[in-house]
Amino acid sequence: MTLRPKPALLLAALSLLALSSCGRGAAPSGSPTLSVYPATLQFSAVLSQPFDPPPSSIVVSNSGTGTLTFAASTDAPWLAVSPAGGSAPQMLQASAMMGTLAPGTYTGHVIITSDRAAGSPASVTVNFTVAPPPAGR
Hints:
This protein has a single domain, classed as Immunoglobulins (Immunoglobulin-like, Sandwich), CATH 2.60.40.10. It is built from one helix and nine strands. It has one helix at residues 7-22, and strands at residues 34-37, 40-46, 56-62, 69-74, 79-82, 85-87, 90-96, 104-113, 122-131. It has a five-stranded mixed beta sheet with strand order 2-9-8-4-6, with no helix packed on it.
């Protein structure tokens, strides 16, 4: 079972985070704090399927003050993140690609970095389970 946050809930969370920092009177040179949600993502696929699992969302936010720009990358060849950077708050899409993977469980990370921000780098652990094809295929 793949757990994916509902996009509407993620957008509501982004809006609340943006609104909560508005009343602080923060200057762009404030003290940004990098926050990411969720901490883990789960993907699963069956080797005989002709398609990859659907992407999952990651929310990048600034729980501090000022402006937070970031870069996003991955540490596994089967894992991708888009966009590769931006300004918080922002929603990213993480994708797992079967490619030539053998059946098994794989672990990778989406790494988000931000210069001069507390909490940087932040990492989202991504688990990808590739099941063998059903018997008889």
